[in-house]
Amino acid sequence: MAEVKEKEISPGAVVAIGLGLGGIAVVGLAALAFARPPTPPSGEILESYWRLTAEEIHHPPSDPIPRETDYYMCFRIRNTGNTAVSFRMAFYIPPPEFGAGWRYSSPIELNPGQEGLIEWVFWAGAPPGAYTLTWYLFGDNEQVDSITITSYIS
């Protein structure tokens, strides 16, 4: 069997090792304290319009949407931040309305400075009239912009 030799460590060496490890910990904590927090996502809605699903004509929100048709609500957006972000549009239906709650579009991923288009298909089945909704742009699940639009069903 191999012989195990014991060595004594001087108290000074123990203190030096402790100070060295403590110093590393202090430097690590200082680096964390001065690290820049991640920048929140930022983006903007550049344009909104609607179009019938069977055509490519862009209509301003003030143009009446024909009743009993499918149409796209379209939002051209831009990532104004400095990191890639997943964007989606949303609107909220307050209670006690039918279907109350948040409704979200499919997400799109945009790099810094990149523009994209979110198209969301709807059915114009409501009675004729004016309908006002606030549309929200979310970036990585944080609200970054909004626009209020009055749509007209004819």
From TrEMBL:
Membrane-spanning intervals of the chain: 12-35
Keywords: Membrane, Transmembrane, Transmembrane helix
UniProt keyword Transmembrane, yes or no: yes
Name under which the protein is recorded: Next to BRCA1 central domain-containing protein
Organism: marine sediment metagenome
